[in-house]
Amino acid sequence: MLQEKYAHQLLESERPDQLYKYLFNDLPENKAYYQKSINQTVNAVIDHLETRSTPYSGASVDQIRERFSRLQAEHPEGNSLQIVLEELKELYLNDAISFHNTKYVAHLNCPILIPTLAAEVIISAINTSMDTWDQSAGGTFIELKLIEWTLDKIGYPENADGVFTSGGTQSNMMGLLLARDHFISNNYSIDPGMDGLPAEATKFRIFCSEVSHFSLKKNAALLGLGQNSVVSVAVNDKYQMDTEALEEAIIKEKSLGNIPIAVVGTAGTTDFGSIDPLYAMAAVADQYKIWFHVDAAYGGGLILSDKHKEKLKGIELSDSATIDYHKTFFQPVSSSGFFMRDKSYINYIKYHADYLNSKEQEEEGIPNMVKKSIQTTRRFDALKLWVSLRTMGTQRLGQYIDDIIELAQRTSLMLRNRAKFEVLNHPEISAVVFRYNPLPNTKTDVCALNAYIRKSMFDEGKALIASTKVEGKVYLKFTLLNPVTQLSDMQEIVDHIERHGHNYFIKN
Ligand SMILES: Cc1ncc(COP(=O)(O)O)c(C=O)c1O
Q1: For residue 349, how far is its CA from the centre of ligand 1 (angstroms)?
Q2: Exposed, middle or buried: residue 37 (CB in 10 Å: 0-12, 13-18, 19+)?
Q3: What letter does residue 310 receive in the DSSP assignment?
Q4: 176 pLDDT more than 50
Q5: Which of the 8 DSSP states describes residue 331?
Q6: What is the pLDDT of residues 400-452, one digit of tens each?
Q7: Domains identified in the chain and CATH numbers
Q8: Interval between CA 78 and ligand 1 midpoint (Å)
Q9: What biological processes does GO assign it (predicted)?
Q10: Which residues, judged by CB distance below 6 Å to any ligand atom, belong to the binding site of ligand 1?
Q11: Which of 15, 22, 118, 330 has the most CB atoms lying inside 10 A of its own CB?
């Protein structure tokens, strides 16, 4: 009920039922406004699908910046949602990057499943927070079932556990955090949770391949170990960690007085999709009594495929693992998981807050997920995966994975058959790294040429590809995550690359 003292502040036309119609609740006018708003919004999205045939409009940064320079975020009286949606078209939708487009083959962004969008409607409307039972109820069991399902696919033992996270970066952070605190607890007479780090922590070393994800270094810094604690180990010609080099690196660091605490294997490197020799790495970690984390942010989706899941063998021997559902499970951002082989590891970060998850509640057996997460308030992202698995079935998802891997292999072959291209990898998952080099024995600046191609393709918007550097040289990259994309799409994209490459020579 509107309080008397505020009544004079209302506009003449704004009756209390109008003022409060914006709040999600069970009042008839609010339900009507909710339904109308969602319908209008879905129509705006459909309109976006119908008016955009390319992955990008090609608008320049300056053009888009200019639109915002004349705008204020604040609007005292507000506008109808329809007007705001119209404005949003101009400001954002017309130029949004379309990951669903078959010619989007740039970064690790997948097209998303429609059932996940239905789930998003419920997630945002009901607005469950996953931190405690008294804010989530059945939502907690949905997340727990999916954790159980993923743990089973990984092949972890009975006592394993996990939690949904915001992404691979956060999951990798949890892996390194538990690795650090496990090592401290086992080797020093301090409790890292209470006392912090021992002086020797400056000597802690984490080993990962030279092509592993940057989040490992960033997380090491955030964990107080410094980026220099991360030792990059050489890879073989398939961009997989060289395990002999790993052992040599461990021995060398020990001889320098440093202290190995963890090895990180990558199952699906960001650039190449290469999978480290997880078995051999697990054995090395075991030999040196250090933590073994597997970053399967990209490769985790292989657990869905009967044909390719073998490639992840060895992940079951890890102490912890990262899997990003928003990369290879066709889930919207954000949806990721962190998994550990022994649920007691989580005690390193457990905290009881009297107002939230008291010790008494734990003793009663109330499942409060906050104890497993580094977040407190946490979105019910698990519902998207739940609705996906139960509407589509895992077999279809496995087929999607098989299709993108086959497309990557055929694309790599197609590029190898074109004389003007150099291809660096045979895709284990779905990334192809290559460069355009039509005149190999000339003084052409091949890096400048390929950087030009990537930028002009973005500026044109007809097809989006990525670039990266390998041993200091610029390469182009396809990340194939769309099962609808066909080899003919890839041929067209390669034709665009050749056209822009040709233009480079005309201009230079
Ligand atoms: C191998 C790997 N690990 C971790 C990450 C980080 O994942 P997120 O972007 O979900 O934080 C990425 C992102 O591309 C990745 O490729």
Answers
A1: 23
A2: middle
A3: G
A4: yes
A5: P
A6: 999 999 999 999 999 999 999 999 999 999 999 999 999 998 999 999 999 99
A7: 129-392 (3.40.640.10), 395-507 (3.90.1150.10)
A8: 38
A9: carboxylic acid metabolic process
A10: 108, 167-169, 172, 213, 215, 266, 268, 270, 295, 297-298, 324, 336
A11: 330
